[in-house]
Amino acid sequence: MHLYVNTTSPFVRLVRLAIEEKGLSDRVELEIVDPWKDPDAFLEANPAGRVPVLTTDDGHVIAEAHLILRYLDEIAAPSIYPAEDLARTLAIAAPALGATEAATAIIIGRKSSDGFDTDMVGSKRYRTMAEGLARLDAHLPRDFDDRPDIANFAAVTALDYIVFRFTDRDWLADLPNLRAWRERQKGRPSLEATMPYI
Predict the structure, then answer these.
(1) Per-residue model confidence as pLDDT tens digits over 13-54
(2) Which residue ranges does the record assign to the GST N-terminal domain (predicted)?
(3) What is the mean pLDDT of residues 66-76?
């Protein structure tokens, strides 16, 4: 399999966490691409020009992180959508995914408007990030050692991406439960291998 990635995308990280946790890393070739440069082969694979994009062994091209996660869940265990307490798991994942979407919207919005952070849309996105992390603090996902699933994938991805991209504040200052949860996940190989970087 082939996966278009970049080194900062939280959506790429969601997929890479699944690849690592399912033991598929030796079956997936990673190709780093700058989606803003619109390389021809990449745009042919995904006309939306977004990462991640997975090409399966039989040549099917799947774009969008959640669709790729669905495919990976079909081909390898463990499932990241557990039958046991699925609704609770998805309910925890939802605000984390919302916070991630908001954070990336700000980063992209800054490319077109210097005042994006403080305009109506940017301000709402900041609120979404803060509220998403606060909800995670109140309703923690399971530790990765207990069970890797979409809730802890989404939580660690949101938290690490926001801390990585928005360095002007201590996002965990008033979130002791989430801070302690993240500390407990340190050293897990899948997390260390997929940390965002520039």
Answers:
(1) 999 999 999 999 999 999 999 999 999 999 999 999 999 999
(2) 1-80
(3) 98
What count of other Cβ atoms lies within 10 Å of the Cβ of residue 16? 24
Inter-axis angle of helices 120-138 and 150-165, nearest 10: 130
CA–CA dist 179, 41 (Å, integer): 41
DSSP secondary structure of 16-29: HHHHHHTT-GGG-E
| Mean pLDDT for all residues in the chain | 96
Q: Are residues 122 and 71 in the same domain?
A: no
Q: How many domains does the chain have?
A: 2
Average pLDDT over residues 8-15: 98
The Cβ-side half-sphere exposure at 108, using a 13 Å CA radius, reads 12
- What are the phi and psi torsion angles at 108 (to 5°)? -70, -40
Q: For 140-179, b where at least 16 C-beta lie within 10 A, e where not — what string?
A: bbbebeebbbbbbbbbbbbbbbbbebeeeeebbeebeebe
> Rounded distance, CA 190 to CA 17, Å?
6
- Structure token pair of residue 43: 């745009």
